[in-house]
Amino acid sequence: MTTANAPGKIILFGEHAVVYGRPAIAVPVREVIATAEVTDITQTTQGEIRIEAPNIKLDKWLHVLNPDHPLAKIVHLTLHAIGSPKFPPLQLRITSTIPISSGLGSGTAVSIAVVRALSTHLGQPLPLHRQSALAFEVERIHHGTPSGIDNSVVTYDQPIYFVQGEEPEILHNETPFTLVIGDTGRTSPTAVAVSQVRRAWQEDTPKYEAAFEAIGQIASQARECLMEGRVQELGRLMNQNQTLLEDIGVSSPELRALIDAARASGASGAKLSGAGLGGNMIAMVDPDAADRVEIALREAGAVRTLRTEVST
Ligand code: PMV
Known about the structure:
single chain, alpha+beta, Ribosomal Protein S5, domain 2, Alpha-Beta Plaits, 2 domains, 7-stranded mixed β-sheet, 40% helix, 24% strand, globular, binds (3R)-3-hydroxy-3-methyl-5-(phosphonooxy)pentanoic acid
């Protein structure tokens, strides 16, 4: 049996603006993971793959899945990338502790775990940049115009500074810091928020370009803070980023309630993370304030809270 994992992720700064060419920063969240296990099986013919994904109640042969199903797609892409070898019948079992459609990168992490487990099991592990490119192909079917930040941060499993079309820059933050993540419990498909922003951008391009530019500058400042160990300044930058995300219409009353609760209970800053309109928010906290902030988030309606330490 071959097992492989990939972590969750959150976007620290720059979501949405990154789709329009501005920089963004994302970090892995290793407290939640997707796992893929590949096992040889005997009871069927060569070249068959049984896909089992209990989280989404799926248990089917590959050939009966729609080729555009994200799991079928990533399996086909992986097999093609390693030269479509002949192989014995296999079982591919996928499990994940990453909440779905909530900005924590669950789909991407599943794709990367599958690429890793399958290519390694068949004796041809793929390098990181190929893993990332395959996961990006899957994102493209389902998100339309993904920036590529999700597949990059999940693949490299390091904090990254990302500009669309460029190699991700690994950020070596010398001073680890703590984030609390609060889940509104409201799932929010990325494609919906991204296309809402696209329509609004088409209607009022100057307003949206100005907001994206300001968000990009916040991401650049945050990169300097991280590299110079000035992490205490990140909270203020998160608050500024949140104001701009509200201006472009991707916050929600549930997100706002959690963000207010985090700030009121001692977080130095908070913002939504990912596509918005639901999903998760993040708060920058001192380690000794983390318990208090988590309790406040739950009281304000968070269905789940997570704590993560961001370090290289
Ligand atoms: O997948 P999410 O929900 O974390 O959102 C990705 C971030 C966006 O900037 C909204 C989209 C993208 O492709 O970068």
